[in-house]
Structure formats: C-alpha cells, structure tokens
Give the backbone structure.
Amino acid sequence: MENLDWSKCPVVESIPGKVSGAWVFRNSRTPVKLIFENLEDGMTINEIIEQYPVSRDEIAAVLDFVARTLDSVAS
C-alpha cells in the first residue's frame, strides 16, 4: 500500500504535522491504514463504522481507489 499514490484518492489527505503526516480521511484524524488493519483482523465494515468516525461511502471510495490502482498496475 505504500506505493499507492494516495493523493489521487479524493476522500483522504496528508497534512504535515497532522497524525505525523499519515494519510487520513479528509477532515479527520482517522488513518486510512486503520481500515485495512481492522478488516484484516476480521472486523466488518459495519463494525468499523460503529467504532470510528468514517462513513460507508468513505470506506467504499478508499477500497475502490485501491482496487482500481491495483487493476491498472496488473494490466
């Protein structure tokens, strides 16, 4: 995931000094990698939405961005 150009994903941002410059959901302090870590640990999207200040649409946008990026790399 480090090689993804997150600047092309409209729902995330990286601001120096905000969460150490990590990619976070726009207008929040919620790191994008948190979604992937929790999915990997077995949480559902509904559980993530209940636990963190992110919406289904934001999660869908990030997952779609990653899928499209990986598809373009594989092609």
